[in-house]
Write a structure and sequence with these properties.
The chain is an alpha/beta fold and 750 residues long. 14% of the residues lie in helices and 33% in strands. Strands 12, 15, 16, 17, 19, 21, 23, 25, 27, 28 and 30 form an 11-stranded parallel beta sheet that branches. Strands 33, 34, 35, 37, 38, 40, 42, 44, 46, 47 and 49 form an 11-stranded parallel beta sheet that branches. It holds the Pfam family SLH.
């Protein structure tokens, strides 16, 4: 046997197991590069169905498939009809936009942080979760997937992958691994679909198949008659049926009838022992027919897989919506177990007096503290973020709750800087709580453990809180002793400093160090006998206090230094280039960095950078456009500007293919052409984003021709890259978007 043939023979086992083909004849492959490929049969079948396409006679089966291509393939199968609103900053009008927005509406495809990443290759776990959601395959959370690298599968993907494995739709590599983060190929993606879907009918007509069909059958067209079939699996009637009818004539369906559109009419001789369709009433009653009694079911996008009342989802897109939505193969009713705000969802969960879960399906802006009082309640962020308006003191308060779980969630507070307000992102009060994969930032203290038992799992990130990460306390009137449980591996704090510990004990409570049961932390007593706990053993070696340009440059060159405190005003004779993650801080009050007629600070592919309590000033700038910026963020994905002033430049700040978050007050007054330019420069692949609110900006020199924020028209970016609430948008004669703090300026362009 030659080597080439051997390689082709083992590829099916290496990819995702190749099972029997769908019933029917296999025609010659339509693509020149698929004739001898191991996935030839699957490629041919789905090319005949016009679900997959190639280019110039090639399918490129071994190329990776992008998220956009995956969305288009799934939409051609499911024929979704309704689009979500486009809120993604990286999704413009393209050949795949319609498909992506339809999958988003159905909950099949999810974005993160206002991005959907259409051109990114899809990972194996991402692809399988999308397919499972589309096909209504219920997740199996009872046990972990049976691969040697199961621990590498993301938590949000485990249930779907386990369910797909148990059904025989996928397998792993020959060595027993799954490799969830590897890129999915075009051949593998169509093979998984072919393994799962054994009958596909996308044109009107009468269809007869003598052999039993062992798998899922999909109908996505009206006026289809399935005659004399035995379907050993689910029947999915997709939204593509619209208001039409699918007729079952003498057909047996052993699985569920999942009716997402149109009606299903059962003629004599038809049976559905595996489960009937919902009749559209929303109460879970049966509307199908067994034993050939006749009748019809469906309509309005109903499905048998009704989500339980205790299974609650939240999506801001449901505002002003009514009726039902299908998410991950389950049917939810808006106002009963699907809501547009977290407050409504939590209120509903707390009325049930049962173990319940609330899952976020989108990022949410929160106007007030979210209070959790129920036992056995799980709040699953599903990778999304709660962003609180300025003035909200606490993010989430858990009061007298037992077995409460918060997981996969980011909490972003907007607390006033340079002042202790007693603000916490999460407060657990006399409760038993598990925090798993949580991020809390922007508060005085990230988390308050107040007479509660809190267990940390996964990674709990408490970076970016003004006074430290987690406070352990026993407040006034609290009877129970607090306890924080976990290990240093469960904690992350990139802003840890001498006075900003990762964990500390409230001295007023007179607690012992035993309440912090976190292994691997370094305990440091303070001058007032208060105990601090740090992740880093030699914290002093990671912090530099600088008083000169030479010391500042040396600190930047030392990658062990994580925090640079500037102790005095500095005049620099050259541009300060930052190309790594670091915090540069004016410490207790604003410190000035002065530059003479040159670009001041440049952040170049720097990772996570925080600039805080700084004034950046350019002097000697000549009149006219010189291309001078006080601060340029280039290709840096996580920049935080907190209480920063930039002045004397052509443009105060350039956000060049970077993501910049504004906190505190960022003053862009006194720059010749305006405050902040958002751009995607030459050679920059990443989409820029500016995040914050009008309350985070100051511009005393704003004029019609000097906007506080503007978008570089050359980059062909949309206004969605400026995620700054409260600004007034106007457009120049060249359709360049300008944003103003005042209403007067924007009126000029209306």
């Amino acid at each position: 046997m030659n080597k080439k043939f051997t390689k082709c023979m083992i590829v099916p086992a290496v990819c995702l197991s190749i099972l029997a083909s769908a019933p029917g004849n296999i025609f010659a492959a339509k693509f020149n590069d698929a004739d001898i490929h191991w996935a030839k049969d699957a490629i041919t079948i789905w090319a005949d169905h016009e679900v997959i396409q190639g280019f110039d006679g090639l399918f490129r089966p071994d190329d990776t498939i992008t998220r956009a291509e995956m969305a288009v393939m799934i939409n051609r199968i499911m024929n979704y009809q309704v689009r979500a609103e486009n809120t993604f900053i990286d999704l413009d009008d393209n050949w795949y936009t319609d498909a992506i927005l339809k999958l988003v509406k159905q909950g099949v495809m999810l974005g993160h942080d206002n991005q959907i990443r259409p051109e990114d290759p899809v990972t194996r776990e991402e692809a399988l979760v999308m397919i499972a959601r589309a096909l209504g395959i219920e997740e199996n959370q009872n046990k972990s997937a049976s691969f040697i690298d199961s621990g590498n599968i993301s938590e949000w993907a485990v249930g779907a992958i386990q369910a797909m494995t148990e059904k025989g739709f996928i397998n792993g590599y020959e060595d027993g691994s799954f490799r969830p983060q590897d890129k999915m190929t075009r051949a593998c993606s169509v093979t998984v679909v072919n393994n799962a879907v054994k009958g596909f009918y996308n044109k009107p007509g009468t269809y007869k198949v003598e052999e039993e069909i062992n798998g899922i059958v999909i109908v996505n067209s009206p006026d289809v008659i399935l005659e004399g079939m035995t379907i050993n699996g689910d029947l999915i009637v997709t939204p593509g049926v619209k208001e039409g009818t699918v007729t079952l004539q003498g057909t047996t369906v052993s699985g569920q009838q999942i009716v997402m559109g149109g009606n299903v009419e059962s003629k004599p001789g038809t049976s559905n022992p595996g489960g009937d369709s919902d009749n559209g009433s929303g109460d879970g009653s049966n509307g199908g027919s067994n034993g050939g009694s006749g009748g019809s079911s469906g309509g309005g996008g109903s499905t048998i897989q009704n989500a339980a009342a205790t299974d609650i989802i939240v999506n801001s897109a449901y505002e002003d919506e009514t009726g039902r939505v299908t998410v991950s193969g389950k049917r939810y009713t808006i106002g009963e177990n699907a809501f547009d705000t977290l407050e409504k969802a939590v209120a509903q969960a707390q009325t049930l007096n049962k173990k319940a879960s609330v899952t976020l399906m989108s990022n949410l802006n929160i106007e007030q503290t979210v209070v959790l009082k129920a036992d056995s309640l799980t709040l699953d962020g599903n990778g999304h973020t709660l962003s609180y308006r300025q003035g909200v003191k606490d993010g989430i308060q858990i009061e007298n709750g037992q077995d409460v779980v918060l997981r996969n969630l980011s909490v972003v507070m907007n607390d006033e800087i340079n002042k202790w307000n007693g603000s916490y992102g999460i407060q657990a009060y006399q409760s038993k709580v598990t925090l798993k994969n949580i991020s809390v930032t922007g508060a005085d203290g990230g988390i308050l453990v107040n007479g509660a038992e809190v267990t940390l799992e996964g990674v709990v990130d408490v970076s970016g809180n003004e006074f430290g990460g987690i406070e352990v306390s026993k407040g006034y009137g609290v009877e129970s002793m607090p306890e924080l449980i976990g290990s240093a591996e469960n904690l992350k704090n990139d802003t840890e400093e001498d006075g900003k510990p990762t964990v500390w004990i409230d001295k007023v409570s007179e607690l012992t160090n035993a309440v912090v049961a976190i292994s691997g932390l370094n305990e440091v007593p303070t001058d007032n006998d208060q105990t601090y706990f740090f992740l880093r053993q030699n914290l002093a070696e990671t912090t530099a206090n600088v008083s000169s340009q030479q010391e500042l440059e040396a600190a930047l060159a030392n990658e062990d230094i994580k925090v640079i405190n500037i102790l005095t005003e500095l005049t620099l004779d050259k541009t300060l280039v930052v190309n790594r993650s670091v915090i540069i801080n004016g410490k207790d009050h604003m410190k000035k960095l002065s530059f003479d007629n040159k670009n001041a600070i440049q952040l170049v592919h720097a990772g996570e950078v925080t600039l805080e309590n700084l004034i950046v000033e350019i002097s000697g700038n000549k009149a006219g456009w010189q291309g001078l910026y006080a601060l340029q963020a280039y290709g840096t994905t996580n920049v935080t500007l907190r209480n920063v002033s930039v002045t004397g430049a052509d443009g105060g700040i350039l956000v060049n293919g970077a993501e910049v978050t504004l906190e505190g007050v960022v003053d862009v007054s006194g720059n010749e052409f305006g405050g902040i330019e958002v751009s995607k420069g030459s050679g920059v692949e990443s989409i820029p984003k500016l995040i914050g609110s009008a309350e985070n900006l100051k511009n005393d020199t704003e004029e019609d021709s000097k906007p506080t924020v503007w978008i570089d028209k050359v980059s062909e970016l949309t206004s969605a890259v400026v995620v700054v609430s409260g600004l007034n948008e106007g457009f120049t004669e060249k359709d360049q978007a300008h944003f103003y703090l005042s209403e007067v300026s924007s009126e000029t362009y209306k």
